[in-house]
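S1.2 Input.
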Amino acid sequence: EMQLVESGGGSVQPGGSLRLSCACSGFTFGDYDLAWVRQYPGKGPDWISYINSVGDSTTYADSVKGRFAITKDNVRNTMYLQMNDLKPEDTAVYYCNANGVWGQGTQVTVSP
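S1.3 Output.
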């Protein structure tokens, strides 16, 4: 069974940084493209970043480009999202996704 577990969320002030992790199990991690998605209260999911299976191709939503960085470690079966220069509008629940399978999410709150 594919399982994804996010961690690393928390509360930070504007301009701060967080690193999210997505620990994966139950599938061959190196075979899958992965994504980070966030969701605001009462709204649908909002894709923010994608990384291919090898880890050498990434894309970002305009809203996070230049501030967030997605990486994956095919030895540790873990994907990361380094988030810098956080803004209040980054406040959301963040999920990782692989092949249609979602984690439980981790809350990120950015406020003064």
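S1.4 Remarks. The mean pLDDT is 95.
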